[in-house]
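Quick question, first post here. What does this chain look like in 3D?
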Amino acid sequence: QVQLVESGGGLVQAGGSLRLSCAASGRAFSSYNMGWFRRAPGKEREFVAGIRWRGGNTAYADSAKGRFTISRDNAKNTVYLQMNSLKPEDTAVYYCAGGIGVSYDYWGQGTQVFVSS
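> Answer (accepted):
Ran it through. Tokens below.
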């Protein structure tokens, strides 16, 4: 069993930055692919960024490319999402997820990000 706890959300002005963290409990964190998703008000949950368990290969949604960076520190069982040049449309609850293979089996409770114009 893996538990994921997000932190780092908050209120920021447009153009500002936030860094989200996701702390994982349990063993074998380094074997999990990790991702960040978000759900904006009235919208479906969407993929934001992902990072492979080995090699650190990353993937980003088009909306995140060039502004967001996902990274992981396996020694600290933590994955990060650095978000720069934030826009009001980035306002959402951000979720951390982890899994082995192509699916995400474990999810955090989410952290709220609000970007004011």
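Residues 33 and 42 are 28 Å apart (CA to CA).
The mean pLDDT is 94.
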